[in-house]
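Hi Y.,

Following your request, here is the sequence exactly as I used it, all 179 residues.
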Amino acid sequence: MQNLIASFRIIGIAGQIGSGKTSLALELCKRLNAKKVSFGDFVRSEAIRRNIIPTRFALQELGETLIAELGPYDFVQRVLDSTDIHPIMVLDGVRHIEIWQAIRSLAPRSLLIYLDIKEATRLDRLRSRDNLSDCSIKRAMLHTMEVNIPKLKDLADIVLLESPLEEMVFEALSRIEQL
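Below is the corresponding structure, written out as C-alpha cells. Let me know if you'd prefer a different format.
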C-alpha cells in the first residue's frame, strides 16, 4: 500500500480544537471528490476496541499513547490502511509535526492546510457543539498535543484565517489549484 499512497495527493487539515477542521475537510471532500480520513475516528475506534470510554481527554491520551507505541510513521500507515485508497484523501486532524513529516514521507505529493482561528470562536464552538464546561475546555486546550499544534502553522502550505466556511473553502480550493 505504501507505494500506492506515494502517488496520491493527501491534503492534511491542522488546527487547534474547535477550529473547524472537520467542517473544512467535509466540504473539500465534496468538491474534490476526495475521501475523508480522520485521525480522530481512528483513535475513537481504537478506544472502543480497548474498552476505553471515548471522552475528549481519553482520546487525547490514547492518541499520544498510540504514537508513542507505534511511532509516527507506523501510526500514519495504520490510519491510512484503515480506509480504501483514493486518488485524493483529506486527512482530518493532523496534530503533530512528526505525524505531518510521516505523511510527507509516505506521500510526497501532500499538502497541509492550517486553520488559524481565534480562541474566542473556538471556545464558543466547543461550548455549543460539544456542550463542554469551561473547565473541560481548558483541560483539553492545555493538553500537550493541543499546545504544540500551532507549530504546524510554520509547515503549512496554506494558512486560512478565520472567515465564514464558504470563504475558507473557496480560498483553500484556489490555493490547492495553484500548488
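The chain has a mean pLDDT of 90.

Thanks again,
Q.
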